[in-house]
Amino acid sequence: MSNIFQMPHGGTVYGTLLNHREALAALGDQVNVAPYKAPPKAPILYIKPRNTWAQSGDAVVVPSDAPELQMGATLGLVIGRVASKVSVADALNHVAGYVVLNDISVPHDSFYRPSMRFKCRDGFCPMGAYVPRAAVANPDALAMTVAIDGVVVQHTHTGDRIRSVAQLLADVTEFMTLHPGDILSIGISANAPLAHAGQRVTVSIAGVGQIENTLVAEELV
User: Fold this and answer.
1) Residue 33 region, left (φ>0) first, then alpha (ψ -120 to 50), else beta?
2) Which residues of 177-216 are buried (b: 16+ CB within 10 A; e: fewer)?
3) What is the pLDDT of residues 149-163, one digit of tens each?
4) pLDDT value of residue 107
5) 78: which strand partners?
6) What is the largest CA-CA distance in the chain?
7) Beta strands 131-132; 143-148: pairing state
8) CA-CA distance, 171 to 146, in Å (whole number)?
9) Is pTM, for the whole model, over 0.85?
10) Residue 88 lies in a domain
11) Is residue 204 situated within a structural domain?
12) Which secondary structure element, helix H or strand E, spans residue 207, and what is its range?
């Protein structure tokens, strides 16, 4: 597997949890139990570090302790200008462009504080080519699909988010600064499909592009 994906100016890839209406609703009363006792009031973020970065065409290794992996289609916002405490009205002016992401993870039940062990295995963040912001008229109106071995198994949409792209950027930059080259994902949808070694996974976002990766079994030494 090749991990030579180079983001503009370097940067950090941030994932967003529970930003899909259906995904949050599916938790039901779990969000009301201790220690949180309420749905999240601010974006919940995690990091997809450099070891997770991969390109379309790279093989993704399925760890021996996880026979299936969750395929997380999502849109990535590539930051073009330093963003700190930006307004909703001005938020998109800080976006340089968009990328297709497959935020892969080991299936798990935890939320709010996802374990790096589930989210950060090598190759668990394939990314597509950079598309300039001007090429996408409305980032909140894009169809997303996941296909396994050529068969579409998930239809979802960037508009199904609790926070729009602009609102997410405003809320995140209220408590942290994003820098040029950083990528912030809008979060994966509920019912993300599972795939296993030997299968080919294609993630497509209308107007942005698609990425395709084959899953391979881990070779034990």
Assistant:
1) beta
2) ebebbbbbbbbbbbebbebebebebbbbbeebbbbbbebe
3) 999 999 999 998 889
4) 87
5) 97, 183
6) 54
7) unpaired
8) 28
9) yes
10) yes
11) yes
12) none
Contact 75, 185 (CB under 8 A): yes
Q: Give the span between the Cα atoms of 196 and 15, in whole angstroms.
A: 22
- HEC string for 182-198: CEEECCCCCCCCEEECC
Phi then psi for residue 93, to 5 deg, are -70, -10
Burial group, residue 66, by CB count within 10 angstroms (0-12, 13-18, 19+): middle
Residues of the domain holding 32: 13-217
Q: Are 13 and 47 in contact (CB under 8 A)?
A: yes
Q: What is the DSSP track for 70-85?
A: E--EEEEEEE-S-BSS
Low-confidence ranges of the chain (pLDDT < 50): 1-9
Rounded Cα distance, 166 and 155, in Å: 23
Alpha carbon distance 130, 144 (integer Å)? 17
What per-residue confidence (pLDDT) applies to 160? 86
pLDDT (tens digit per residue) in 96-117: 999 999 999 998 666 555 577 7
Structural domains of the chain, count: 1
In this predicted structure, what is the pLDDT of residue 9? 46
Bridging pattern class, strands 73-79 and 125-127: unpaired
3-state SS assignment for residue 102: strand
CATH assignment at residue 84: 3.90.850.10
Residue whose structure tokens are 């983001």: 7
